[in-house]
UniProtKB/TrEMBL annotation:
CDD domains reported in the protein's UniProt record: REX1_like
Protein name as it appears in the record: Small RNA degrading nuclease 1-like isoform X1
UniProt organism field: Nelumbo nucifera (Sacred lotus)
Pfam families associated with the record: RNase_T
Keyword Coiled coil listed: yes
GO biological process, one term: rRNA 3'-end processing
PANTHER family assigned: FI18136P1-RELATED, RNA EXONUCLEASE REXO1 / RECO3 FAMILY MEMBER-RELATED
SMART domains for the chain: EXOIII
Family, as annotated: Belongs to the REXO1/REXO3 family.
Function in brief: 3'-5' exonuclease degrading single-stranded small RNAs.
Keywords carried by this UniProt record: Coiled coil, Exonuclease, Hydrolase, Nuclease, Nucleus
Subcellular location: Nucleus
GO molecular function per UniProt: exonuclease activity; nucleic acid binding
InterPro entries: REX1-like_exo, REXO1/3/4-like, Ribonucl_H, RNaseH-like_sf, RNaseH_sf
C-alpha cells in the first residue's frame, strides 16, 4: 500500500484523507489533526485543509495506517480512480465505443464526490454482493439500463433495513416491486416518509438476499444501474455495482458549484416540468424509480449540457428552526450532542435517528430560525458547504468521558434562502447606509464651517503685512527726519 500511496496523484491523496476525516479514521499518530500537530510543529492543525498540504504530508499521514480494514478502504478509493482512468482512456482512444449511456456512466465516475460516496465496505461484509462486470471493453457495448429505489426503516440495533425495492427498465416497465422482510426488530417504520407500516409487512417472506439475487441476475451482462443519490440505495441493498448513473451527479446547476447536488424533486421540476411529490408528502418507491429513469432518458435526448436553472425553494419556518447533525459515530449517545451548543440555548433533539453504517444523524430543534442561525454561527469548526450549497461546519468536541469525537452540523437552507440571514444582511446594509449618511453629513459640515487653522493663518499674514507697512512708513519718516537735520546743519555752518 505504501508504494501505491507514494505513486498516487495529489487529488487522490486529498480524497483519501478527506474520507478518513469523514469516517473518523485514526492511524498510529491519531486522526488527521492530531497527526498535523505532531508532524508539523510550526503550523500544526491550523492548516488542516488537505488540499493545501503537500503530497509528502498527505502520504506521511496515510502511511501511519496499518490496520487491514483501513488499508482496504484506501484501496477502494485507489481502485475508483483506476476505473476513472480506464474509462477516460477508453473514451479517448476509442471514442466510437462510448455510447451516450456510457458517457453518463463516465460523468458519474468523474464526479469529484464519487470516490467518497461509492467506496463501500463490501470487502469485509458477508452480506454484501459484488457484481462481476468482466472486461471494460466488453461491458461498454451494453446499454441496458435499470433504475432502482428503496425504502428503509430504522432497526433496534441502530442499523437500517430495506423494506421495499422497486426497479424499472428503460421502457418504464416494472421489473421488481417487492416488500422486504427486514428479519430484525424495527424501532421506527418512518411511516410518515416511507408510507409503510408494520401491518404492510405481515406475511412478507421476501428477504434482502432474494432481492440481491434478482438484481444480480438483471445486472450480470454489464447493465447500467440508475438512481438518485444511488449510493444510499446500494448501501442499503449491500450491493456493490461499478457501472452506475447517479442522477444527482450528471446534472449541474447554472452558477453553482459542481458539488451542489440537486434533490430529486427539484431536478424533476427543472428537467421534467413537474414534481415527484408535494412538500411533506410520503415517498412512493415506484414513482422515485420512474423519476430517475425519466431523468436519464431526458438527459440522453436533450443533453442539458449548459446546466439547469436552480428552482426557488420554499422552506417552512419550522424547518429553518432546525440544524442537521450528521456523521455522528454510533457509539456517541444522542444526549452528548448538547455539548456542541452554548448552554444558553434551549435545544431538543429529534427522537427518530437516521443510521448509515457506523454513523447516524439527527436534528437539533431550536425555538425559531433566528436562534438556530445564531447557534450555528457560535459553533467553532471548519466552515464549508454541503453538496447543495448549504453551510455546514466540521467540528470536534469533547465527550463527558473525556474522549474527542468529530461530526458535521448543517443548516437547513442556503444563506440566500434563510430569512434570518437575509434579515441580518438587511440590518447590516441599513447600518452601513446610516453610517455612510452620518459620515457624509459630517464631511459636509466640516466643509461648510471655517477652518480655525486657516483663519489663524490668514490673520497672521495680515498682521505681518500691517507691520511691514508700518515699518516702511517709519523708515520713510526716519529718512525725512535725517534730510531735515542735514539741511539745518549746513545752514548753521556747523
Amino acid at each position: 500500500m505504501d508504494e501505491k500511496i507514494a505513486c498516487a496523484e495529489k487529488e487522490v491523496l486529498v480524497e483519501i484523507v478527506r474520507l478518513a476525516q469523514r469516517r473518523g479514521m485514526k492511524g498510529a499518530a491519531g486522526g488527521w489533526k492530531e497527526f498535523l500537530d505532531h508532524y508539523d510543529k510550526k503550523l500544526g492543525s491550523s492548516l488542516s485543509d488537505p488540499a493545501r498540504r503537500s503530497i509528502d504530508v498527505l502520504a506521511a499521514f496515510l502511511k501511519t495506517f496499518t490496520k487491514e480494514e483501513d488499508l482496504k478502504i484506501f484501496a477502494k478509493i485507489l481502485q475508483c480512480h483506476s476505473n476513472r482512468k480506464a474509462i477516460k482512456s477508453l473514451s479517448k482512444n476509442s471514442p466510437d465505443l462510448e455510447s451516450p449511456q456510457q458517457r453518463l456512466v463516465r460523468l458519474t465516475l468523474e464526479h469529484p464526490q464519487y470516490p467518497i460516496y461509492y467506496s463501500f465496505p463490501s470487502y469485509n461484509e458477508q452480506e454484501w454482493v459484488v457484481t462481476n462486470l468482466g472486461k471494460i471493453s466488453k461491458i461498454a457495448n451494453s446499454n441496458e439500463m435499470f433504475a432502482v429505489d428503496c425504502e428503509m426503516v430504522l432497526c433496534e440495533d441502530n442499523t437500517e433495513a430495506v423494506v421495499q425495492v422497486c426497479v424499472v427498465d428503460h421502457n418504464l416497465k416494472v421489473k421488481i416491486n417487492e416488500l422486504v422482510n427486514p428479519n430484525k426488530a424495527v424501532a421506527d417504520y418512518r411511516t410518515d416518509i416511507t408510507g409503510i407500516s408494520a401491518k404492510d409487512l405481515d406475511g412478507v417472506t421476501c428477504t434482502l438476499a432474494d432481492v440481491q439475487r434478482s438484481l444480480k441476475k438483471l445486472l450480470k451482462h454489464g447493465a447500467i444501474l440508475i438512481g438518485h443519490s444511488l449510493n444510499s440505495d446500494l448501501e442499503a441493498l449491500k450491493l456493490d455495482h461499478a457501472r452506475v448513473i447517479d442522477t444527482s451527479f450528471i446534472f449541474k446547476y447554472i452558477n453553482a458549484p459542481v458539488t451542489r447536488r440537486p434533490s430529486l424533486n427539484n431536478l424533476c421540476k427543472s428537467v421534467l416540468g413537474h414534481e415527484v411529490r408535494k412538500q411533506g408528502a410520503q415517498h412512493n418507491c415506484l414513482d422515485d424509480a420512474f423519476a430517475a429513469m425519466k431523468l436519464v432518458l431526458a438527459k440522453l435526448e436533450k443533453g442539458f449540457n449548459e446546466g439547469i436553472t436552480m428552482p426557488h425553494e420554499d422552506i417552512p419556518e419550522t424547518e429553518l428552526a432546525k440544524l442537521l447533525i450528521h456523521g455522528i459515530p454510533v457509539e456517541v449517545p444522542s444526549k452528548e450532542l448538547k455539548r456542541i451548543f452554548p448552554t444558553d440555548y434551549m435545544v431538543e433533539f429529534q427522537p427518530n435517528l437516521k443510521v448509515r453504517g457506523q454513523k447516524y444523524s439527527t436534528f437539533a430543534i431550536f425555538k425559531d430560525a433566528q436562534e438556530a442561525s445564531q447557534a450555528f454561527e457560535r459553533i467553532e469548526g471548519i466552515r464549508e458547504k454541503d453538496s447543495r450549497g448549504r453551510p455546514q461546519k466540521f467540528i470536534s468536541f469533547q465527550l463527558s468521558t473525556g474522549a474527542t469525537t468529530s461530526l458535521y452540523v448543517r443548516k437547513m437552507a442556503t444563506d440566500d434562502l434563510d430569512p434570518s440571514v437575509e434579515s441580518k444582511k438587511r440590518l447590516l446594509q441599513e447600518e452601513r447606509i446610516i453610517n455612510e449618511t452620518k459620515k457624509s453629513k459630517m464631511m459636509t459640515a466640516e466643509e461648510s464651517k471655517p477652518s480655525t487653522e486657516s483663519n489663524q493663518c490668514e490673520h497672521l499674514i495680515k498682521e505681518i503685512e500691517r507691520l511691514k507697512e508700518e515699518l516702511s512708513k517709519r523708515e520713510e519718516e526716519n529718512r525725512n527726519l535725517q534730510t531735515i537735520m542735514a539741511a539745518l546743519i549746513r545752514k548753521s555752518g556747523l
